[in-house]
Amino acid sequence: MKIGIIGTGIAGLSAAWLFNRAGHRVTLYEKHHTLGMDAHSITFEQKGVALRTDVPPRIFNVTQWPNLLNLYREVGVAFDPIDPSQSFCLIGQPNFLNVDVAYQPQVPDGSEITEQLNQIMNDIARLALGASQDLADGLSAQTTLADYLQRQDYSQAFITDFLYPILASTVCTCSYDSLNAYPAPVILETLLNLFGSQPLLRTKYGAQDVVRRLSRGIDDIRYGTEVCALEPTPSDVRLETTQGKVETFDHLIVATQANQALDILSNPSETECKMLSSFSYDDVPIIVHQDSALMPVKRKKWAHINLLIAPDRRATMCSVLMNRFNPDWQIDQPIIQTINPLIEPQPETIIAQYNLQRPVVNEQSLAGLDLLKLLHQKAGRRIWFCGSYAAEGVPLLESAVLSVLRVANRLLVPIGM
Ligand SMILES: Cc1cc2nc3c(=O)[nH]c(=O)nc-3n(C[C@H](O)[C@H](O)[C@H](O)COP(=O)(O)OP(=O)(O)OC[C@H]3O[C@@H](n4cnc5c(N)ncnc54)[C@H](O)[C@@H]3O)c2cc1C
């Protein structure tokens, strides 16, 4: 078959790898001039040495990311555990919590146990037990996270000083309002997978190595090529690029964000419109810089992942110390990636900045997933939608790969993974 794939994030690339391996003719379209999963990675110089780092830094573990891990193993991506240390503070105040293992916090020996810490620790233990039971009892997806926490009487300290900071600035990277509306079961399942004893991992050689491996053997990659129109005909699908080039394919996999996919379809059906519009996105600003004002006050208390909470406790920024994410770097100067910066770094310290987007999960997006399933079951279908938004769970690399596996199964590609 002749397969066109639009978008080269993890979804487009894993689709390309699967279909190429199954012997189909694959053409990849990417509007960036490099493969999308690596498009924001940066190379910069420190004391004459070129350093490269992923933006954003992506982590995973074996419990929450099983299909991603299978894929990485299959293509030979090496991965290793990251330094799991995490710190929590209010901006400008000393840290109130430093933990050695992210998501499984233990108060270090000798720390002063304040009422705030007591409540946080009690509620972490309570959630770890209660969440499994509530999920086993069939907690409804219509229960929002905010409702669930209120109903179960979780403490304010746990919500504002621990749970929302880690969810809003690391796991889901979304606003507190979006977090309130997240379906509780989606969050609880993810937390249980993170609270386990599996180490957090990173790819050893970064996104550049991942994209090279997934695209190996695919010679038809159209870089810097934006697709602007798609239309099914009775016998194939017609694609048009902004350069005016028209091509036809047996099947087209749209592996862009849902909001971008809607712009590409020339005559979307009512169901396609409804499905794609049900996924909304939050903006995620991210800055790579060297300004220690966006880190905890005391340098000795810097962890790998630092959560700095706004004084009104309605937002959190996450400053990742990239020197720890990349332990092979031989430099003393801190390189920091701040997700959702609540303070502007000094302009002269900025190395790169982006405004990314991340889908949020809510009642509408769950309805969108039901519609997507119906669309993909229709006989004679030739346009397929994949991406982190297109499978259940928190939108992560895992949901993107899962959405691709489903389409590959539907198109009867023999899958050996
Ligand atoms: C700050 C942050 C931190 C994150 N951390 C993690 C993490 O630790 N672990 C994890 O698993 N996930 C993490 N994620 C989520 C993860 O990065 C995404 O879920 C994943 O990269 C999405 O991949 P995708 O292939 O679905 O979409 P994308 O990566 O968005 O790929 C879509 C591609 O389509 C291209 N495109 C769009 N329109 C067109 C067009 N018209 N023509 C041609 N090309 C087009 C785009 O340029 C892009 O390359 C994080 C996300 C953010 C924002």
Describe this structure in words.
It is a single chain. By secondary structure, the protein is of the alpha/beta class. The protein folds into two domains: 182 residues, FAD/NAD(P)-binding domain, CATH 3.50.50.60; 203 residues, Polyamine Oxidase, Chain A, domain 2 (Alpha-Beta Complex). It has 13 helices and 19 strands. The strands form five sheets. Strands 7-6-15-16-17-14-18 form a seven-stranded mixed β-sheet. Strands 9-2-1-13-19 form a five-stranded parallel β-sheet, with helices on one face. A three-stranded antiparallel β-sheet has the order 10-11-12, with no helix packed on it. The longest helix has 22 residues. The protein is globular. The two termini are 21 Å apart. The model has no long low-confidence stretch (mean pLDDT 94). The structure holds flavin-adenine dinucleotide. The site of flavin-adenine dinucleotide has 38 residues, from helix 1, helix 9, strand 14, strand 18 and helix 13.
Give a short summary of the structure.
This protein is an alpha/beta fold.
Please specify the SSE layout and strand pairing:
Blueprint: E1 2-6, H1 10-21, E2 25-29, E3 42-46, E4 49-53, H2 66-75, E5 79-81, E6 86-90, E7 97-99, H3 115-136, H4 145-151, H5 156-171, H6 176-181, H7 184-195, E8 201-203, H8 206-215, E9 221-222, E10 227-232, E11 237-241, E12 246-249, E13 251-254, H9 258-264, H10 270-277, E14 281-289, E15 305-309, E16 316-321, H11 322-325, E17 336-339, E18 350-359, H12 363-377, E19 383-385, H13 397-410
Parallel strand pairs: 1-2, 1-13, 2-9, 6-15, 13-19
Antiparallel strand pairs: 3-4, 5-8, 6-7, 10-11, 11-12, 14-17, 14-18, 15-16, 16-17
Helix pairs in contact: 1-13, 2-13, 3-5, 3-7, 9-10, 10-12
